[in-house]
Specification:
Blueprint lengths: L4 H7 L1 E6 L1 H49 L4 H32 L6 H13 L9 E6 L9 E6 L7 E15 L5 E18 L5 E19 L8 H4 L3 H4 L6 E8 L3 E8 L7 H29 L1
Antiparallel strand pairs: 1-2, 2-4, 3-4, 4-5, 5-6, 6-8, 7-8
Amino acid sequence: MPIELKELRKQLIYEETAFFENIQTDLDDIKSLSQLAKIRAEKFSNQALYYFIGLVSISVISFTLYNSFVVSGLLSVTLGVMNWSLLGLIIGWIYALIMRSKFMRLNLINYRYYLILEVMQMLIRDLDTANSMYLKLSFQRGEENQHKINTIPHPYKPGWNIDIYRNQWLNTKGRFLDKTRFTLTITELSKKQYGWKHTRSGKKKYKSKVKYDGLDISLSLNYSQDRYNAMKILQNDVRDAIKIPEFCYVGGLKVTERSMSLRVRISPDYAKNPSEIYQTIIAMFLSVYQVLNLAKMLSEQKV
């Protein structure tokens, strides 16, 4: 399905429910669009620089001519031409800056994109490709108003506030070959403290600082109760089976006869490292499926 370029540029979100191959094609298209946008942004950036240099040069020459010579008819014509040239350069400079900003917004490729590619390649091994899957991938910054969930007073800086943000930039759903349905989400957590600070000279200066609190990765499975009916026996032992990297910890775990939900928090130092995030996701899938496989084995022994 063709990417809606205008909508992608406006929202910075890719969202689709389709077969795996179609989503993979869309991701390839996003990469191509991003690479083209980067080239165009660099082109307009160079144009803006050249226009600015031209503006400064003609301004200096015009000022020098006006102050160094007696105004004559020829000089007036020359200065008039230069003024029109200045106007043209200003228009060209503004246009180049606008176009640069427009294409910079579409330069989307970052660690999120490469991470989801790795995740997709990992999922395809056991994914039921005969069924469609859902993918929502956001390239938005975490500190945008739509991601703000609360504002609280700063605990020890009078007049300062702290904005709290939760940006869920990945949400994907699908079904494995064993009919188990999964939902995987990644949420970026951050805080921004801001307020007015008095400088040494007595003036007020606005200050702000962003602090990243890490990532929440959530994995939910909905499985067949008949296939894994021994899960009710293993409910109290699941936490011991969860093996995740040292730079993260289990933030939540819920197990029932039909579903399992695991939430893991990655520390801020590793929250933008695609390799560490991918390693955590693999460990989460392996851990929950280790429990499911044990439940399956116990269920078959009962039969």
